Amino acid sequence: MTKATSKLLLAMAMQIFALGSAYAGPAFMHVGDRTTQPVGHYEFCQKLPQECNQRTPKQAPIELTRKLWATIVNVNNSVNTSIKPLTDMEQWGKEEVWSYPDTGFGDCEDYALEKRRELMNVGVPAGDLLITVARRPDGEGHAVLTVRTSLGEFILDNLEARVLSWTDTDYTYLKRQSDEASGVWVTINDGREDAVASIH
């Protein structure tokens, strides 16, 4: 990481902590009812059932400390720079294969899965690390990791070096994992656009 990048990340962290309880905007996505699980995630769960049997008691999101923020930023940067982008068709010969990028290659959901795994390994609860399906401005489907914290929800994205509040991204959020059960998915209405059709 360059000195300029480190300074930028530190400045972002200081801005977040300066905001504190005065955090502006809708800090948390509005989630709705249970919805269909993406096919790729369903098949991922069939291969690794323990990944989709995680239960998190209903509780407040994890406290966003300076140490946790640094960890989140470092994990996002590390995974984004260590994994090389490759579509499922290029790597596996078929669409929508969700897997950990242990080969060193992956697409958007594989980056998100790896970030989730690494943050769980340092103690962040599964219920605060939610794979989320969105639509990009060009209409393409996309997957990111949403991290729920005491200062709101932040997006870890393989297409963006910065960790941004979900409201600072230009995606339309469609659905994500439940914060209580990792194998359950719920709808999202972020309020910034009329309801959109879910993608699978």
Structural class: alpha+beta
**N-to-C span:** 36 Å
Judging from the principal axes of the Cα atoms, what is the shape?
Answer: globular
Strand fraction equals 15-25%
Mean pLDDT: 86
**Count of runs of 4 or more consecutive helical residues:** 5
CATH topology: C8orf32 fold
Could you please describe the fold and organization of this structure?
- It is a single chain.
- This protein has helices at residues 3-19, 39-47, 66-82, 88-92, 108-121, and strands at 31-35, 84-85, 105-106, 129-135, 141-149, 152-157, 160-165, 172-177, 185-188.
- By secondary structure, the protein is of the alpha+beta class.
- Strand 6 (152-157) and strand 7 (160-165) form a beta hairpin.
- Helix 1 packs across helix 3 (66-82) and helix 3 packs antiparallel against helix 5.
- It is globular and about 40 Å long.
- The N and C termini lie far apart (36 Å).
- Mean pLDDT is 86; it is low at 17-25 and 194-200.
